[in-house]
Amino acid sequence: MDRGEDIESLGEQLYDLIFPKHAEMAGQLTGMLLELPGPVLNQMLQDEAMLAGALEKAVRALHEPHRYSSDIQKEEDADDESVSSDSLGEQLFELVDIYNTGHTQKITGMLLEQHKEALLHLLSEPSLLEEQVKLALKTLKE
Asked: Hey, what long-range contacts does 45-52 have (CB within 8 A, 24 or more apart)?
């Protein structure tokens, strides 16, 4: 079985587990979780609590970008960059934590060194975030 078939099989299994609890968002949530590394996905299929935690974070991430973007606009209008950085940091932390690296705080801190525009792009592009998390983790292990 090749990587594409593995992902398809994992996606089907995840979807079957997600659909009963999140019918309207099952496809989107499955897609978000499929951005995670294969071993993490396999672990989630075996550990109901881990899957529930990841789903909770994914649902929050789906609902919060709208809240954060309006918060960021209000904060920019008030010219208060420290609060907007906190909001971005909290959202980034939640997304990085899904990867179960054991270094969520350090990786989030590393990513927060980027400009606000780059952070907003990271938050909107799961594949880019995964790439950055892997790079940060590699750097920490060296």
From this structure: 45/10, 45/13, 45/14, 45/17, 50/100, 51/14, 51/17
